[in-house]
Amino acid sequence: MAKNWAGNITYRAGKIHRPSTVGQVQSLVAGSGRIRALGTRHAFNELADTTGELVSVGDLPRVVEVDSAAAQVKVSAGLRYAEFSEELDAKGFALPNLASLPHISVAGACVTATHGSGVRNGSLASSVAGMEIVTADGSVVEITDPSGAVVNLGALGIVTSMTLDLVPAFEIRQYVHEGLPLDSDILGVLGGAYSVSLFTDWSSSKINQVWVKQRVDEPEFVPEGTVAADGPRHPVPGMSPENCTPQLGIAGRSFERLPHFRPEFTPSAGEELQTEFMVGRSDAVAALRAIDAIRAKVHPVLQISEIRTIAADEMWLSPYYRRDTVSIHFTWIADTAAVLPVVSLVGEQLAPFAPRPHWAKIFRIAPEVLRSRYERLPDFRELVRSLDPEGKFTNAMVGELLS
User: Fold this and answer.
1) Integer Cα distance of 3 and 13 in angstroms
2) Under CATH, which number does the domain 171-364 receive?
3) Structural contact between residues 398 and 370, judged by C-beta atoms closer than 8 angstroms
4) How far apart are the C-alpha atoms of 14 and 359, rounded to whole Å?
5) Helical packing angle, 336-350 and 284-292, nearest 10°
6) How many CB atoms lie within 10 A of CB 366?
7) How many angstroms separate the most distant Cα atoms in the chain?
8) What CATH code would you report for 64-168?
9) What's the whole-model pTM score?
10) Residue 165's Cα: distance from chain center in Å?
């Protein structure tokens, strides 16, 4: 039976299709009763699952069409970011930000609002200017207003291509600093460079590592009270930094430094589970203190926790909708029975801050509470009804949200 990347989800779908043309996608969708898109299998929950059929667009013809005048690129939906970022760079362009993993697919990352870091950087979905999607009757529909449709959890159809806004190519220097006290100016540190990530294992009231991704045309930022790492580091204590992107201030192209991990290596520390909660930036310090209060429960089942920032956007189902955000990410050990009670406890601690979860990771928030945190959800329901009136693309998880 097919499983997700982490191995904690076994897909119930009777078949996984790998069409090689958009026409084949159209035929599959038109002839199916229940069908969902399957990306690079990085969802840690049942978001991609269905009792019907799954379709991967990874075998569709490769499309990388750069429009230099418009500063945009049209890419096939199944491409991984590592598979075209260098090509953009060669033509003088870049994406404004990338996730920690360059191994994820464009469509899968964008429909779940996956992100990198930076107080002025939006999620990966915020770069989407338009997309083509196969809807329930097998038609190809071009979406030119992404606000309601990009972060769609697979509920609108099968995305076949996306058009992304670009910026001029740029270079980054990456530094790692260690030993930041949790009672430091955390928001100041997070806003100190183009992209900043904080890593802690919650074994103490300290941030283990501060990863600073600094544009080469900006002054170097050194977090006060930290010590520069004396060599390359991996975020997870005890892991080899071999598969991490170059550090120690060695300049490189943005696509070589913004991800934490190199595309030619498998980044995982082994089997793992992941959870991520998003809180408003103004609540971040209080939220981190709330987690610190239960670190004795968190640390034993944790590999590492990462803290990042994401700029507000206008996408209806985005966890960053109209809220500058700090994300608190947890990479857990691969023990579901031990982890789930702690996920619930973390959710309780963060409840006063109305956290929004990463859609593709493990969370325990009552559906009615979750629905209340997305004010444009009624508009999204109407969009789903217009493109998929019979609920062909809806599964149990999406159905709970839309009910």
Assistant:
1) 11
2) 3.30.70.2520
3) no
4) 24
5) 140
6) 10
7) 61
8) 3.30.465.10
9) 0.96
10) 18
